């Protein structure tokens, strides 16, 4: 690389290599530092932000440059409250990095008492009125066109003046007796209560008022839409007006991500002319149907009972088990045999139905004999 440099004879600023070659500061911070160091003393009474705007440096660029200058010790600030209660900020920008104590020493040397730094002071309070001699001559009236001002009158010596509005006549004033009479008669009869609100048909109006937490979440979602689509920029008042409709989505189980996707999906081809109208229409007509109430759970099945020994008597001595459904102590076959045994004793017969098993027949005969008093 070839280099050709000519030192200027005037109008230059000394810049240390530690600033020019620093890798920890960006170009905005370096340019702002060198620009302020090269200003005359008469131009240093402006704040650093105003000087940065002259370099077309504002917003995030200025904040980043100011942060880097502060971190590396080139910029120091002090906030103090004056006698009149106003807060002031003093800024010190040095060409070399200084510690907080070193910057305080430099500030003390450049203080307004030393005559080095002219700090803008708040406007002085107006001086109290001093005792002055009256003007020569006596006070006189100021006649204009032969008209003399009227003398001011107070309540004691003011003459009666015609009223600006006609006073009500006593005859037109209603008497209190006729008005007081119907009042007690109407007091016991209260106004009929308003009719109950109709049941919800799926629309958003009959819904209950959303909770403050749902309104805050909905407003945050509506204000964040401008980051995805610039044409959906809403003001704070517009977002609060639409927050009630958006909160119903959230209270019906829709997440914030799904709500944002529903409002951003399928944008119109001709664009959005009114973000407030577009979002209001979409929130109203695409609101999901509230979820149906959950069906009551089915009752649990009855517990399975343990097997017990049937107490029914039979010709065989073998025991048989069965699982009862309630408090019964005999199985279904033995209970049927007991019923037939009672029928056989009443009818004095031994007829059995065709579908009766041999065990039921034997048990029925044994129980019938027992009822008749015969030995088994």
How is this fold's topology laid out?
Blueprint (H helix, E strand, L loop, with lengths): L16 H4 L6 H11 L10 H6 L6 H12 L3 E7 L5 E7 L6 H10 L66 H5 L1 H5 L25 H12 L12 H16 L4 H9 L10 H11 L22 E2 L11 E2 L9 H16 L10 H15 L4
Helix pairs in contact: 2-4, 8-9, 9-11, 12-13
Radius of gyration: 51 Å
- What is the mean pLDDT? 75
Kindly report the CATH topology of the domain at 17-114. Answer: Arc Repressor Mutant, subunit A
User: Judging from the principal axes of the Cα atoms, what is the shape?
Assistant: elongated
Quick one: CATH class of the domain at 17-114?
Mainly Alpha
- The CATH level-2 architecture of the domain at 17-114 is identified as Orthogonal Bundle
What can be said about the biggest beta sheet?
2 strands, antiparallel
The helix/strand order is HHHHEEHHHHHHHEEHH
- As a percent range, the share of strand residues is under 5%
Number of helices: 13
Distance between the termini: 131 Å
What is the strand tally? 4
Walk across the major sheet and give the strand order: 1-2
Give the fraction of residues assigned to helices.
25-40%
SS class? mainly alpha
pLDDT < 50 runs, ≥5 residues = 114-122, 177-188, 195-206
């Amino acid at each position: 690389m070839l280099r050709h440099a000519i030192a200027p004879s005037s109008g230059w600023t000394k810049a240390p290599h530690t600033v020019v070659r620093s890798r920890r500061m960006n170009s905005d911070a370096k340019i702002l530092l060198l620009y302020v160091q090269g200003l005359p003393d008469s131009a240093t009474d402006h704040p650093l932000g105003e000087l940065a705007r002259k370099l077309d440096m504002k917003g995030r660029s200025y904040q980043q440059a100011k942060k880097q200058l502060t971190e590396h010790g080139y910029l120091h600030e002090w906030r103090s409250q004056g006698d009149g209660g106003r807060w002031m900020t003093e800024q010190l920008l040095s060409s070399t990095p200084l510690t907080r104590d070193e910057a305080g020493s430099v500030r003390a040397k450049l203080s307004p008492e030393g005559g080095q730094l002219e700090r803008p002071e708040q406007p002085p309070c107006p001086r109290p009125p001093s005792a002055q001699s009256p003007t020569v001559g006596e006070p006189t009236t100021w006649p204009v066109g032969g008209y003399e001002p009227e003398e001011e009158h107070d309540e004691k010596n003011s003459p009666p003046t015609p009223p600006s509005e006609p006073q009500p006549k006593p005859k037109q004033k209603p008497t209190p007796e006729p008005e007081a009479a119907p009042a007690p008669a109407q007091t016991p009869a209260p106004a009929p209560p308003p009719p109950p609100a109709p049941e919800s048909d799926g629309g958003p109006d009959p819904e209950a008022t959303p909770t403050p937490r749902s309104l805050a979440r909905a407003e945050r979602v509506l204000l964040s839409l401008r980051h995805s689509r610039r044409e959906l920029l809403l003001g704070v008042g517009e977002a609060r007006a639409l927050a009630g409709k958006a909160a119903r989505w959230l209270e019906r189980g829709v997440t914030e991500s799904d709500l944002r996707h529903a409002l951003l999906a399928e944008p119109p081809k001709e664009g959005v002319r009114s973000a407030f109208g577009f979002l209001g229409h979409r929130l109203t007509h695409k609101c999901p149907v509230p979820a149906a109430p959950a069906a009551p759970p089915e009752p649990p099945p009855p517990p399975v009972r343990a097997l017990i020994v049937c107490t029914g008597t039979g010709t065989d001595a073998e025991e048989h088990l069965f699982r009862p459904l309630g408090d019964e102590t005999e199985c279904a076959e033995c209970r049927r045999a007991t019923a037939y045994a009672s029928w056989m004793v009443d009818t004095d017969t031994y007829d059995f139905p065709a579908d009766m098993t041999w065990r039921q027949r034997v048990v029925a005969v044994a129980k019938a004999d027992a009822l008749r008093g015969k030995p088994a």
